[in-house]
């Protein structure tokens, strides 16, 4: 009896492996192999042969040294991208949670509003994004771009408000943070639509009985939020943070730079070094953020 | 205390109670009105932030050359024209390119659904050695940015060969670039555009389905493959629709792989859009970048339309699907 059960289990295991075989092949052939090759590229000087092949000569850490110490823009671009990621993440998470809560309440035209908020997912391609930025400048800059750029008379005198806030005694860092966010509000809102969906789904999966219970016990809305809503969506905060970091990084200028170095200057080794470096840094950030957040996370089950 | 006093007190208490309930009712009404005003303001503002640029693009696509230099024209064109659309249609070769693109993204999406659901099912329902580590690898493919593997992939498909067979037969290695084959191959092996995420979605969904369905199928004599294709995949409709929408949209918008594998611009609409401005300037002899930009706006409207139509058709199932498909933990 035991023998038959064991073979059945083994049979199931074989079927399971058969089910995942396509992915496993692809993972080994494309991901693992490419990752190893990429590290190999980054440690060598690559010459591209006429037949399309390549010859690699081992140079050690030369490419990394060049990227970090001698390349004109890499350091700057990398630091800028990282700073943008770190600045925007808290706001994106806060904003998308706030919007999800707002969209989760019942009001007229909810279906339409939801469609609008998911629209940015549809408009993700490069050319469309560039033109969207152009159009954003059009509507924020007044009548038409060129005219607006020539005559800056119609703009609000922001400096005045900044001085006002600083006179009030607000720390300069905070004022800079807020003005930076306001200036990039279009990008931030556009970057948080998937996060809103995820939070919305999380909010709807909270059992209604919890809220009824809290109401009977006499909890205020404030207490209900911090004792029920927030802990119940907190696992998804981690998901959203990871998604945001990855999404930001994929669209960041570091990727463009690595691409340009590879296919415009044909310096494969340097490009590989750049992508390895930036990926390593992002993975490090992910690990740190994940450990920090998962400590505070509450798991219902 | 006589009866009149009692009656008096009773009336007084009644009045107070009435007063209090009335006051709290008005208070809550004021609260809800304030809340709805607040909500309307925020939502309208945010919707404008999202829609504003889009409206601007659509309205600009009807601008004529004189409108763009007229500072008093904002949003509504004075001399509306379809010239930009005519140019964009011609230079995008719209219907042909759209046809190719749809064939491409639909076939890729079908492959994604089939392969990813299969892999997801394998991870959800079967026990085999190293399962946890392997699933960790799926998560890694979600998190790892594609540009860290782009150069080896490029080289791989530039000199494509399976264990030296092709070189032995033809004397030369196959060059799969400048075509869609690399993308088909990668999707077939579950490593296409964001396949990791789709595998994750399917796995979560299948884990949420009751085991009794499969047990019943097993007792009735269905093998694991029949159970998967005939029963589980049919039951996974919400997840299938979620993945279908995401895959269609992302594949449609993907520029990274299209550029990396130098796919022909005549087959990929968004790819062609990225060179539209240069094409219009060259082919139509439009030397003014502001005017050729108008053709790009028209092109964007044309490119966005089909995906909007798809989204509107599927959005009801899509939102439901996301809520039910178990992205949420």
Query: Helical region count of chain A?
Result: 14
Helix-strand topology string of chain A: HEEHHHHHHHHHHHHH
* Low-confidence parts of chain A: 142-155
The averaged pLDDT of chain A comes out at 79
Description of the molecule:
The complex is a heterodimer of chains A (301) and B (329). Chain A starts with a helix and ends in a 5-residue tail after the last helix. Chain A has a two-stranded antiparallel ribbon with strand order 1-2. Residues 142-155 of chain A have low confidence and may be disordered. The longest helix of chain A has 41 residues, at 2-42. Chain A is 78% helix and 3% strand. By secondary structure, chain A is mainly alpha-helical. The mean pLDDT of chain B is 83. Chain B contains 16 helices and no strands. The N and C termini of chain B lie far apart (67 Å). Chain B has 329 residues and is mainly α. The longest helix of chain B has 58 residues, at 3-60. The radius of gyration of chain B is 30 Å and the shape is flat. Classes of the chains: A mainly alpha (301), B mainly alpha (329).
Give a quick rundown of the structure:
Chain A has 301 residues and is mainly α.
Summarize this structure as a short list of keywords or feature phrases.
heterodimer, A: 301 residues, mainly alpha, two-stranded antiparallel sheet, 14 helices, globular, B: mainly alpha, 16 helices
Question: What is this structure's SSE topology?
Answer:
The complex is a heterodimer of chains A (301) and B (329).
Chain A: H1 2-42, E1 44-48, E2 54-58, H2 62-70, H3 74-104, H4 110-122, H5 126-140, H6 145-150, H7 158-167, H8 172-183, H9 185-191, H10 193-204, H11 208-216, H12 221-250, H13 253-263, H14 268-296
Antiparallel strand pairs in A: 1-2
Helix pairs in contact in A: 1-14, 2-14, 3-10, 3-12, 4-10, 10-12, 12-14, 13-14
Chain B: H1 3-60, H2 65-68, H3 83-92, H4 94-125, H5 131-143, H6 150-158, H7 165-170, H8 181-188, H9 195-208, H10 212-219, H11 224-235, H12 237-253, H13 256-260, H14 269-274, H15 276-283, H16 289-324
Helix pairs in contact in B: 3-15, 3-16, 4-8, 4-9, 4-12, 5-9, 10-11, 12-16, 15-16
């Amino acid at each position: 009896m035991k023998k038959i059960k064991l073979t059945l289990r083994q049979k199931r295991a074989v079927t399971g492996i058969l089910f995942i075989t396509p992915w496993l092949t692809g993972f080994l052939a494309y991901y693992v192999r490419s990752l190893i090759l990429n590290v190999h590229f980054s440690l060598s000087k690559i010459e591209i042969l006429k037949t399309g092949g390549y010859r690699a000569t081992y140079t050690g850490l030369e490419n990394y040294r060049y990227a970090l110490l001698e390349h004109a823009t890499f350091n700057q671009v990398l630091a800028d991208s990282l700073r943008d990621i770190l600045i925007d993440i808290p706001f994106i998470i806060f904003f998308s949670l706030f919007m999800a809560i707002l969209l989760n309440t019942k009001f007229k035209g909810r279906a339409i509003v939801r469609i609008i908020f998911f629209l940015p997912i549809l408009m993700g391609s490069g050319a469309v994004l560039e033109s969207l930025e152009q159009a954003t400048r059009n509507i924020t800059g007044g009548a038409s771009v060129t005219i607006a750029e020539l005559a800056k008379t119609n703009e609000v005198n922001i400096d005045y408000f900044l001085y006002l806030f600083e006179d009030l005694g607000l720390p300069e860092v905070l004022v800079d943070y807020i003005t930076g966010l306001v200036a990039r509000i279009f990008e931030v809102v556009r970057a948080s639509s998937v996060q809103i969906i995820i939070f919305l789904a999380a909010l709807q999966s909270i059992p209604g009985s919890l809220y009824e219970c809290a109401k009977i016990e006499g909890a205020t809305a404030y207490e209900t939020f911090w004792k029920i809503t927030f802990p119940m969506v907190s696992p998804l905060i981690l998901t959203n943070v990871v998604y945001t970091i990855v999404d930001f990084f994929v669209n960041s200028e570091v990727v463009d730079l690595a691409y340009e170095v590879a296919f415009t200057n044909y310096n494969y080794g340097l490009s590989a070094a750049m992508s390895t470096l930036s990926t390593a840094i992002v993975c490090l950030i992910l690990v740190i953020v994940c450990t920090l957040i998962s400590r505070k996370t509450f798991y219902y089950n | 205390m006589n009866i009149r006093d009692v009656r008096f007190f009773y009336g007084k208490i009644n009045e107070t109670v009435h007063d209090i309930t009335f006051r709290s009712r008005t208070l809550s009404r004021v609260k809800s009105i304030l809340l709805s005003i607040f909500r309307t303001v925020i939502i309208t503002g945010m919707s404008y932030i999202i829609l504003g640029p889009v409206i601007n693009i659509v309205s600009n696509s009807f601008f004529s050359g004189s409108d763009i230099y007229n500072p008093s024209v904002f949003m509504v064109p004075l001399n509306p024209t379809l010239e930009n659309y005519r140019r964009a249609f011609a230079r995008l070769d719209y219907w042909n390119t759209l046809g190719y693109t749809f064939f491409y993204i639909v076939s890729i999406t079908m492959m994604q659904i089939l392969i990813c659901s299969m892999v997801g099912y394998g991870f959800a329902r079967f026990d085999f050695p190293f399962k946890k580590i392997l699933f960790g690898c799926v998560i890694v493919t979600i998190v790892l940015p594609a540009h860290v593997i782009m150069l080896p992939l490029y080289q791989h498909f530039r000199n494509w060969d399976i264990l030296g067979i092709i070189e032995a037969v033809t004397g030369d290695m196959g060059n799969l670039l400048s075509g869609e084959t690399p993308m088909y191959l990668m999707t077939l092996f579950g490593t296409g555009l964001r396949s990791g995420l789709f595998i994750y979605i399917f796995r979560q969904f299948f884990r949420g389905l009751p085991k009794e369905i499969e047990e019943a199928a097993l007792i009735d004599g269905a093998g694991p493959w029949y159970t998967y294709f005939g029963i589980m995949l049919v039951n996974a409709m919400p997840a299938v629709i979620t993945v279908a929408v995401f895959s269609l949209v992302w594949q449609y918008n993907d520029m990274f792989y299209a550029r990396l594998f130098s796919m022909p611009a005549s087959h990929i609409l968004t790819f062609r859009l990225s060179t539209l401005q240069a094409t219009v300037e060259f082919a139509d002899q439009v030397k003014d970048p502001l005017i050729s930009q108008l053709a790009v706006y028209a092109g964007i409207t044309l490119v966005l339309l089909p995906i909007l139509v798809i989204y509107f058709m599927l959005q009801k199932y899509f939102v439901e699907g996301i809520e039910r498909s178990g992205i949420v933990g």
